[in-house]
Automatic annotation (TrEMBL), chain A:
PROSITE patterns named in the record: ABC_TM1
Topological category with respect to the lipid bilayer: Multi-pass membrane protein
Main location: membrane
Pfam families to which the protein is assigned, alphabetical: BPD_transp_1
Protein name (Swiss-Prot/TrEMBL): ABC transporter permease
TM regions (residue ranges): 34-54, 105-125, 137-156, 162-179, 219-244, 264-284
Annotated family: Belongs to the binding-protein-dependent transport system permease family.
Span of domain ABC transmembrane type-1: 98-287
Lineage start: Bacteria, Pseudomonadati, Pseudomonadota, Alphaproteobacteria, Hyphomicrobiales
Keywords from the named record: Cell membrane, Membrane, Peptide transport, Protein transport, Transmembrane, Transmembrane helix, Transport
Cell location: Cell membrane
Organism, scientific name: Rhizobium oryzicola
Gene3D superfamilies linked: MetI-like
From TrEMBL, chain B:
Protein name: ABC transporter ATP-binding protein
Principal subcellular localization: membrane
Domain ABC transporter residue range list: 11-259, 282-526
Any Pfam family matching the protein: oligo_HPY
Gene3D superfamilies hit by this protein: P-loop containing nucleotide triphosphate hydrolases
GO MF annotations in UniProt: ATP binding
Organism: Rhizobium oryzicola
UniProt KW Transport keyword: yes
């Protein structure tokens, strides 16, 4: 540290000492402050992903078949989170349920991202009448309450994990479309886009080379938020009985099943609830970091 | 030098750095100067020279990570460099005030301007509402706003750039401070407005005996308006002294360079006489462009503009903002449909272009934009930016594309190592060279330069102008050069059109326009060019000395 090299007078010395102390402490402190929450978020998402990929590594119990005589056991060394009313290990059900919730969320976000971004891109880059028609359609989508929209779609398509994912994805189309359109409109006015047209670029070339890459920044950050939100929505649908049918260990369904024993076995609702909250918060935290670094 | 008792501002051995942690970047090094009561001191330098940082430190307004590392700033004899925010607030306004650079960003868009002027009176004074309102009108009248009662109720978007700057000046002088800091007060304004604003600042200053610290990159303005000059480069003082003495006999090489680069001070270079045997490449006849306004109204942006440009020459289109000059060249480059009149480029009639024939036409006419920060895609490397026009037309094999890109990048004076970089890693001048390379890679016949050097520092501007001249000679290019800066036009143009409110008020060879302007408006423009006080005969001697040394 070269903190005391240019010191004239007492006051000056004081200032640079203070600054010097700050300098030596600052990097460590910053590392901690910036990455701790983010690290935890990645850790949680990473664990959830591992659960989805290789559930067998984390638990030896079967998630759908109960142990006879082991109903509604409190958490113990044998059953980390206890057992449910049919004697199934809750921790095993949460671990095996991860693949349903995560793949459902990925599918839902993919539906919203693809449909919403395409609509927004077309609306923003063509403008005029097409823009007006698309955006009014988006307004209609926004006008319907999300849960009502999801439920209607599920009733039309039928029950199941994939259908629930499509239903959740459909509700996020409007958000993606509006965000993409506003970004595209901003980028379209940029001089480099006009310059690209000016050097002989065709509409699709300019769209692909300039407009799309430059408008996707905030869309990517938004995707991560939507991921957490989709898990929440899927759990809601599962809780209401519109998601995967039992005995699928879907997180929302787990919460719903445990609800009857809230007074005697609160951990049956609390544990899956906590997992959902942790994963959703982590997804939000990661999305925030994407938004900041870009 | 003035005694510290008399000087309003005295900066001693000031050093400022930016950054955090161990990585601090020194921006101002050991700068000392003083401003006596009633004196105008100009801080001159290119961007990055630390002139704005120095000015900000006097107000205690250093941006986030900035810090005064050493030295002192004495304002009326008191060192304010270690003051906290609360004490500084007490002096901002009554003792020292700021006229900011960009009037369009410096006023709150959701408050009436009268309210914004009243704000400073309310913060510092205990005036009653009625009294304050009266004072606001007084101030607005004082800075020469017509119909001050009406203006006070208007919002910033209802005022022109010049009017907004007048409002900001009203705020700056409201509490009769001892020192006003003007940070590039007119660089965002047209030349004629610029002159009026500077005159106003001068008058007000004289009236109240206020000192002025004028921060500018334009040596012409500094020459006209200041008593003393402080020339900064890379955060160090290169030269300091009374303005006439510094200009007449600059001691440092950097000052000499600034002098020779400033277009308004440069000795006019004689361009080789126009070769009249060359065929005319661009012909514009009676060009008229209307815009539809809401409510079935039409606005005529360009009204009967005609000129012709021989191949290999430069035609300059001059005018203030709103004069229709940009609309004219957008029509010429096929971005805007003309409502009437004709544009011919070579054999092509631009009005007859369809979406199919427009693309081949783009090969012949290329545009270079004003702002090199906005005209390059921030996500593409320099190589892809320059390569892109080639991809749009007949497909070339990859190695040939690469060699053409490299050749053109070298042609505009950049090292080939920039090709793998992104635009943000380049300086403004380098970016503008990239933009020129992109325009030239298709080997166009006509290059349209829309204020292509206006956003650059004088030194960089001079370099780009000489590059443009060189390229024109070597490649036989025809330029359409749009500018509001007559001094630059005089250096580069062969023929000139002067536009005013969409009408062409003057047209002819550059010498004729400057020596025998036919319209009052052109005369006003020429008179507004700063640097008129500058002793040109001395300058020639200085330049000669500079070349010898």
């Amino acid at each position: 540290m070269t903190t005391l090299e240019t010191t004239t007078g007492l006051e000056q010395q004081h200032v640079s000492q203070a600054a010097g102390a700050g300098q030596s402490r600052l990097p460590k402190f910053r590392l901690k402050r910036i990455s701790f929450g983010l690290l935890l978020a990645w850790l949680i998402i990473g664990t959830a992903l591992l659960w989805a990929v290789a559930p067998g590594l984390f638990t030896g119990y079967n998630p759908v078949e109960g142990l006879p005589g082991g109903q509604l056991k409190a958490p113990s060394a044998l059953h980390l989170l206890g057992t449910d009313s049919l004697g199934r290990d809750l921790f095993a059900r949460i671990v095996y349920g991860s693949v349903h919730s995560l793949s459902g969320a990925v599918a839902a976000v993919a539906v919203g991202l693809l449909a919403g971004t395409s609509l927004g891109l077309v609306a923003g880059s063509t403008g005029g009448r097409i823009d007006a028609v698309i955006m009014r359609f988006v307004d209609v989508l926004l006008a319907i309450p999300t849960l009502l929209l999801s439920l209607s779609i599920i009733i039309l398509l039928g029950f199941g994990t994939i259908n629930a994912a499509i239903a959740v994805g459909a509700t996020s189309i409007a958000g993606f479309a509006r965000l993409t359109r506003s970004e595209v409109v901003r980028v379209r006015r940029a001089e480099y886009v006009e310059a690209a047209f000016g050097s002989g670029g065709t509409f699709w070339n300019v769209l692909r080379r300039h407009i799309l890459p430059n408008s996707l920044n905030s869309v990517i950050a938004y995707t991560a938020v939507q991921f957490g939100w989709a898990i929440l929505q899927l759990s809601t649908l599962g809780f209401l009985g519109y998601g995967a049918p039992p005995p699928t260990p879907e997180w929302g369904l787990l919460i719903a099943e445990g609800r009857n024993y809230l007074a005697t076995a609160w951990w049956l609702t609390a544990a899956p609830g906590f997992v959902v909250v942790a994963v959703v918060l982590s997804a939000n935290r990661i999305s925030q970091s994407i938004g900041r670094t870009r | 030098m003035t005694n510290s008792n008399q000087s309003v501002l005295e900066v001693r051995n000031l050093s400022i750095s930016y950054g955090d942690g161990d990585r601090r970047n020194g921006v101002v090094h050991d700068v000392s100067f003083s401003v006596a009561a009633g004196e105008v001191v100009a801080l001159v330098g290119e961007s990055g020279s630390g002139k704005t940082t120095t000015a900000q430190s006097v107000l205690g307004l250093l941006a986030g990570s900035g810090r005064v590392d050493a030295g002192s700033i004495l304002l009326n004899g008191e060192d304010i460099s270690r003051w906290n925010e609360k004490r500084l607030r007490g002096i901002r306004g009554p003792v020292v005030s700021l006229i900011p650079q960009d009037p369009s960003n410096s006023l709150n868009p959701v408050l009436a301007v009268g309210t914004q002027v009243r704000e400073i009176l309310e913060i510092h004074g205990r005036l009653s509402r009625k009294e304050a309102d009266r004072r606001v009108i007084e101030l607005l009248t004082h800075v020469g706003l017509p119909e001050p009662e009406l203006r006070a109720r208007q919002y910033p978007h209802e005022l022109s750039g010049g009017m907004k700057q007048r409002v900001l000046i009203a705020i700056a002088i409201a509490l009769k401070p001892a020192l006003i800091i003007a940070d590039e007060p007119t660089s965002a304004l047209d030349v004629t407005v610029q002159r009026r604003i500077l005159d106003l600042i001068d008058d007000l200053r004289r009236e109240h005996g206020t000192s002025l610290l004028l921060v500018t990159h334009d040596l012409g303005i500094a020459a006209d308006r200041s008593d003393r000059l402080v020339v900064l480069q890379n955060g160090r003082i290169q030269e300091e002294g009374p303005t006439p003495a510094v200009l007449a006999a600059p001691k440092s090489a950097y000052t000499r360079k600034l002098l020779s680069d400033a277009p308004s001070l440069a000795v006019k270079t004689n361009r080789p006489a126009l070769d009249l045997s060359k065929p005319e490449l661009v012909t514009v006849t009676g060009l008229t462009i209307d815009f539809d306004l809401p409510g079935r109204q039409r606005f005529r942006a360009v009204d009967g503009v005609s000129f012709s440009v021989p191949q290999g020459s430069t035609h300059a289109i001059v005018g203030e903002s709103g004069s229709g000059k940009t609309t004219t060249i957008r029509a010429i480059s096929g971005f805007q449909k003309a409502s009437g009149g004709g544009i011919r480029i070579g054999e092509t009639d631009v009005a007859s272009l369809t979406s199919g024939t427009l693309r081949p036409f783009r090969r012949k006419v290329q545009l270079v934009y004003q702002n090199p920060w906005g005209s390059l895609d921030p996500k593409q490397t320099i190589f892809s930016i320059v390569e892109e026009p080639l991809l749009n037309f007949d497909p070339l094999p990859k190695p040939e594309r690469a060699s053409r890109v490299e050749a053109i990048i070298e042609r505009v004076g950049l090292p080939t190592s920039v090709l793998s970089r992104l635009p943000h890693a380049l300086s403004g001048g380098q970016r503008q060279r990239v933009a020129i390379a992109r325009a030239l890679v298709l080997e166009p016949e006509v290059v349209v330069l829309d204020e292509a050097v206006s956003a650059l520092d004088v030194t960089v501007q001079a370099q780009i102008l000489s590059l443009l001249g060189e390229l024109q000679r070597d490649l036989g290019l025809t330029y359409l050069f749009v500018s509001h800066d007559l001094a630059v036009v005089r250096q580069i143009a062969d023929t000139v059109s002067v536009l005013h409110n969409g009408r062409q008020v003057d047209y002819g060879p550059v010498e004729q326009i400057f020596e025998r302007p036919t319209s009052d408006y052109t005369r006003e423009l020429i008179e507004a060019v700063p640097g008129r006080k500058f002793p040109h005969h001395l300058h020639i001697a200085a330049q000669a000395a500079g070349q010898v040394s």
